[in-house]
Task: inverse folding
């Protein structure tokens, strides 16, 4: 059996056929064009899946299920997309619409959850029964795996780790609250911290790597300059690592998973970031002498979207 | 079948025989005397269980299991108490020791987890597949129930909700960190806030209810004065409710359980507190128009310790 996985993003629809080992056999994609009717977009989902099936010589009877990772919230019971702000969707009967074309089980879940699921089946956390995935990108997303299955909550609104309060009455967040974790742990946070430091240290290597203008700073400039030993960049880096260690400790104190996986753009800083986070974490752990979650870097990169969506079919066998 | 439940506290050992409906058929207790050898204390566990069995006319063949709630951390796999600071225990083979006397399955878990389990079997969250229990007492403890089973984490150090950072670099906590949730949401936090307010408003009704001295303030004085409309007490109450709503939102954003149950001393403020928390919570919820966790008061009070410990036997059937 093989599984179809669809990774729905704001710019593109990516579909793939994935085997039981988590290998993508073939892929196809189309532009999202979010403003059109959902029925039209759904037809493109189907076209992409069929295209990938053809490329991989998959017959319809081999296809076990279709899974979709969305940048939003789904209702598992009804197969509706409840809310998907980037696509402009609200209460869209996506499962029903897809099943007009292909009569297979359809599973829909949040994209960060799906990426976490991919890592837990075919990536770094593949031998873990429980893991928490953190996407450190423009924002911070979360994916929770418990007993090998994704957990998006009783109402589908869980694993929004980026919007947990880390600093009560702290920096205002787009969500309307203050001090959300993503205001301190995202790539956006790195850039904000760096811009502030560069006002005092305009000669920082960060500014040079940003082409001479702090306006062009990105997280990579900061991490690269820090790796080179640039002091202002190291100030930013250490502050960022400190907040990230606090956030990771919060995950351990709450759920204590076997592993916490760092993904998303910031994680491209690689072992340099990982070593620093691991070194800082014990400062915050409640039981410093007891075993706790291993912290690791994600392995699957962008493929996690398709692989995890496909694996929703395997993972969504009913819980006990 | 019936289940034995033992509630181990710093002052007393309480044991009970509990039926499948969650009714305590009989109880027995003994002083803890934490300084003696664990073997001696274990004999008192057994004596109390036997005593409660006698009182309830329970025959040995009717006893399904023995469960123990401890103010610490247990290793489910080995049946060892890993760490129990109030009792002075570290790596105590409690299951092995108990099974020298009674050859029945032994389950050990954290006391807040056990209380949450009791509520989820026989209390306010009894129809919920997932719930989070918060004990708001001297500190703040947490109990997580997922798919009807307690979740203490992959290493047994989870559900320490009181020690999640809510205010980065905030008030110092006994644990060595700063800004832990329990520094803002416990009864101790209420008292601290009240003492500070009473320095400016020594004529507050709170001080009167504390017998005229702010040194004797407790959480009840604050809530009672607030109920009577005392303005300084209302200032404290509103600040406390605000932090508690933030913490409850963090639980929803992370795990999104079906229900969040408030227990412990502070919850005796009852519907007055519950109404205020429910009114404040939408300010923080990420998806204000979508369904989210119901917030309720615990129902079982002190009995939750025995009932939940007993139910560990029912709940610990292996997960999927």
Result:
């Amino acid at each position: 059996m093989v599984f179809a996985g669809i990774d729905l993003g704001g710019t593109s629809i990516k579909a793939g056929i994935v085997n039981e080992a988590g290998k993508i056999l073939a892929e196809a994609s189309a532009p999202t064009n979010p403003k059109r009717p959902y029925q039209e977009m759904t037809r493109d989902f189907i076209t992409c899946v069929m295209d990938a099936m053809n490329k991989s010589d998959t017959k319809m009877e081999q296809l076990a299920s279709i899974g979709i990772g969305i940048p939003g919230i789904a209702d598992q019971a009804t197969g509706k997309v409840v809310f998907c702000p980037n696509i402009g969707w609200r209460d869209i009967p996506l499962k029903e619409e897809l099943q007009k074309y292909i009569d297979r089980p359809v599973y829909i879940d949040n994209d960060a959850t799906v990426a976490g699921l991919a890592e837990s089946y075919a990536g770094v956390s593949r031998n873990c029964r429980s893991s928490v995935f953190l996407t450190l990108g423009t924002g911070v997303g979360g994916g929770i795996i418990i007993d090998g299955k994704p957990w998006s909550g009783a109402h589908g609104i869980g694993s929004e780790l980026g919007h947990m309060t880390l600093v009560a009455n702290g920096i205002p967040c787009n969500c309307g609250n203050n001090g959300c974790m993503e205001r301190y742990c995202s790539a956006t946070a790195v850039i904000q911290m760096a811009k502030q430091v560069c006002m005092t240290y305009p000669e920082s290597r960060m500014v040079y790597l940003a082409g001479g203008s702090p306006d062009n700073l990105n997280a990579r400039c900061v991490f690269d300059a820090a790796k080179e030993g640039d002091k202002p960049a190291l100030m930013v880096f250490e502050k960022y690592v400190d907040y990230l260690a606090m956030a990771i400790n919060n995950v351990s104190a709450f759920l204590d998973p076997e592993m916490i996986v760092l993904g998303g753009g910031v994680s491209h800083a690689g072992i340099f970031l990982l070593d620093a986070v691991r070194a800082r974490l014990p400062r915050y752990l409640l039981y410093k002498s007891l075993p706790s979650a291993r912290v690791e870097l994600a392995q699957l990169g962008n493929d996690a979207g398709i692989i995890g969506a496909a694996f929703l079919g395997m993972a969504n066998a009913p819980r006990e």
